[in-house]
Design a protein that fits this description.
Blueprint: E1 3-5, H1 17-26, H2 33-38, E2 43-46, E3 54-56, E4 71-77, H3 78-85, H4 88-97, E5 101-107, E6 123-132, E7 137-143, E8 149-155, H5 156-164, E9 177-183, H6 205-216, E10 237-239, H7 243-255, H8 265-287, H9 295-321, H10 324-351
Antiparallel strand pairs: 1-6, 2-3, 2-10, 4-9, 5-6, 5-9, 6-7, 7-8
Length: about 350
């Protein structure tokens, strides 16, 4: 086959590509929506970082791919592949022909339209979802040089250089793999068992309520996974709605500085994605009769989302102008969101039976 493209869709989370890539696949399947809307509620933040940095919490950040129901995941050590197998082009084409998407770390120095292209060596996760053997290129998904999350393509030889390169100074232990994955059709499984991953996932109302409570109380959700790994340290990580107090302190630090660096825009945008997803979750739950009489809750969540848009825009303008009055207003908006969100999510808890 000269060309094959696997389906992808625009993901609701683009804060970090590991979430974006998997959601761009799962959202092509109606059966995956209950799992998506049962998760992506709790967030965590880095207390000691020089920048404002948050992420969605779904257990171990490097392992959650393997725990997603109905997802088949395969990994190969990257160094082993380069030393023993080598033909990454054929490997990717064969996987795509069998319906598998691929994630791996590449050196963006060789990836056209990336921010590092032909400028500096930078290791980053990339997703391959298709190929054209006549034009000799792969179809990829990720951030371009304007930080837009978009489709792109890279020729076979440039991709092989990017894959084989290990020159980026930001590589770490998580970088050494090739991951292929697809949503498994239960009809293809010879012995399907419900105690394994291959079953239809039902919306978990108990989990949603538990996650909302943990968010509202800023509980360290990683402590529930102590049978698998050491919980995240409370002096290094914070959780849930406490993110707004942390953001306010971060803004205060900026206000007290003479020279101000840019604020990491990704995490501010991540807060907005969290609000957008909370709103779409309630709409989904009401549409599918998991909750009712949620019109007021939807209005409250939409207002919170709009405030998060204002906060994001204020930070964007600050990064251009360095006008500290924008940060003062941002601190006010953050506190406003915190209070409104506490009321909205407390109401949401009463709606879930």
């Amino acid at each position: 086959m000269s060309e094959k493209l696997l389906p992808i869709t625009e993901p609701p989370i683009r804060l970090f590509v590991n979430h974006a890539y998997i959601l761009s696949v799962l959202l092509n399947y109606e059966k995956c929506l209950p799992w998506i809307y049962s998760n992506y509620i709790q967030i965590y933040f880095l207390k000691k970082s020089q920048n404002f940095s948050i992420n969605f919490f779904l257990g171990n950040a490097t392992k959650y791919f393997y725990n997603i129901p109905f997802l088949e995941v395969r990994t190969i050590d990257k160094k082993f592949f380069i030393d023993k197998l080598d033909d990454i082009i054929k490997y990717i084409i064969d996987n795509i022909d069998f319906g598998y998407y691929l994630n791996t770390i590449v050196d963006e120095y060789y990836i056209p339209n990336s921010r590092a292209y032909s400028k500096y060596h930078y290791m980053h996760l990339i997703m391959v979802y298709g190929y054209n053997s006549d034009r000799k290129h792969f179809n990829i998904f990720g951030f371009d040089n304007n930080h837009n999350f978009t489709k792109n393509h890279v020729d076979f030889l440039a991709f092989k250089k990017a894959f084989n390169s290990m020159k980026g100074n930001n590589k770490n232990v998580r970088d050494h793999y090739i991951m292929s994955y697809k949503v498994k059709d239960v009809n293809e499984i010879e012995y399907p068992q419900k105690n394994f991953n291959y079953f239809d996932y039902q919306l978990d109302l108990k989990l949603i309520k538990e996650s909302i409570r943990e968010y509202l109380t800023s509980q360290n959700s990683s402590e529930k996974f102590s049978m698998f790994y050491t919980p995240m340290a409370n002096d290094e990580f914070g959780f849930g709605i406490g993110v707004y107090d942390h953001l306010t302190k971060y803004f205060e630090k900026i206000l007290n500085q003479d020279d101000c660096n840019n604020i990491d825009f990704r995490s501010i945008h991540g807060l907005l994605e969290h609000k957008q997803l909370m709103l779409s979750r309630v709409k989904y739950m009401q549409k599918n009769s998991y909750v009712d009489n949620c019109d007021m809750l939807i209005v409250m969540l939409r207002d919170i989302m709009n405030q998060a848009i204002i906060l994001r825009n204020l930070v964007f303008k600050f990064n251009i102008t360095k006008d500290k009055r924008l940060i003062e207003r941002g601190a006010y908006i953050a506190d406003k969101i915190k209070k409104a969100e506490y009321d909205a999510l407390s109401l949401m808890l009463t709606k879930i039976n």
